[in-house]
């Protein structure tokens, strides 16, 4: 039996013309038999191999492809369906190439204070309230151009695609240190660059180097008033994708001895038997 056969059906008038269609009631979700799953003897963990599909894993564990849907029921992170299933290395690389094309320009906002200590009067060089999605960004020194497709003010990042030329931005102390002013053609907003990265290698999150747990900070705390840049490091988008994909490769599975019992109980619950 397939996953969606487990769900009850309902009739719904989509067009409000009196003609009802039978559809699967996907919104009636049965939380999987908590007491049953909490029994450590009822399930174990399985490491998905590169490229293994759900039906292949079901065949390997249960001798049939029919129980692939149970993986999506008992693993919370798989409730989004196949989109949450770990990608093969080939698909992951293709995904990164397609979804993370372009460059990221980071800025380093400053904090202006009034004469009173601790009273903030403004944030020069901040991205908040600046630039419009879809506009062309130009580098005044480099002459480079790109289309703004995403802005993350918390991380001080502008994501540009269709880039022509090379924007200037290198905060590393030394001879290579150089920045430039970038300007939005439509908005006329401008800021100074801090660093320029390939999108896939740009910071996804930051963490303090003296934090053994490497607790993630998704706000760029290297801005004034935050942590000194030398005390911070970051995980790249590439590292985050690889780590997340690997984490999704370890799933909880029903022990083969209990699979029939689980299927019967689950079907009864979602059909209100």
Structure, described:
This protein has 273 residues and is an alpha+beta fold. The chain has two domains: 101 residues, no CATH class; 150 residues, no CATH class. The protein is built from six helices and 16 strands. It has a six-stranded antiparallel barrel. Strand 8 and strand 9 form a beta hairpin. It is elongated. About 3% of the residues have low confidence.
Point out poorly predicted stretches: 221-228
Structural class: alpha+beta
> First CA to last CA: what distance?
18 Å
What's the mean pLDDT score? 82
Rg, rounded, reads 26 Å
Proportion of beta-strand residues: 25-35%
> Which strands sit side by side, in order, in the main sheet?
4-9-8-7-12-13
How many domains?
A: 2
The number of helices is: 6
- Main beta sheet: strand number and arrangement? 6 strands, antiparallel, barrel
- Taken in chain order, the helices and strands follow as EEHEHHHEEEEEEEEEEEEHEH
| Total beta-strand segments | 16
Based on Cα principal axes, name the global outline.
elongated
Helical content (DSSP H or I, runs of 4+): 10-25%
């Amino acid at each position: 039996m397939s996953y969606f056969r487990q769900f009850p059906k309902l009739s719904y008038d989509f067009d409000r013309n009196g003609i009802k269609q039978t559809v699967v009631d996907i919104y009636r979700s049965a939380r999987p038999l908590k007491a049953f799953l909490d029994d450590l003897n009822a399930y174990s963990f399985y490491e998905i191999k590169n490229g293994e599909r759900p039906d292949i894993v079901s065949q390997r564990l249960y001798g049939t492809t029919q129980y692939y849907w149970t993986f999506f029921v008992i693993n919370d992170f798989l409730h989004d369906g196949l989109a949450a299933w770990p990608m093969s290395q080939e698909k992951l690389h293709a995904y990164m190439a397609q979804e993370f094309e372009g460059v990221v320009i980071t800025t380093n906002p400053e904090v202006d204070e009034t004469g009173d200590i601790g009273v903030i009067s403004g944030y020069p060089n901040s991205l908040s309230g600046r630039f419009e999605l879809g506009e062309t960004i130009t580098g005044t020194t480099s002459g480079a151009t790109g289309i703004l497709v995403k802005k993350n003010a918390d991380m001080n990042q502008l994501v540009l695609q269709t880039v022509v030329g090379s924007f200037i931005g290198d905060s590393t102390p030394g001879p290579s240190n150089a920045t430039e002013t970038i300007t939005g053609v439509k908005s006329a907003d401008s800021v100074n660059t801090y660093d320029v990265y390939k999108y896939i290698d740009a910071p996804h999150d930051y963490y303090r180097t003296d934090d053994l747990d490497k607790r993630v900070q998704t706000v760029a705390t290297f801005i004034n008033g935050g942590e000194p840049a030398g005390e911070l490091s970051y995980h790249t988008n590439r590292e985050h994708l690889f780590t997340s994909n690997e984490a999704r490769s370890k799933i909880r599975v029903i022990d083969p001895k209990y699979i029939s019992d689980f299927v019967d109980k689950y079907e009864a619950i979602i059909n209100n038997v």
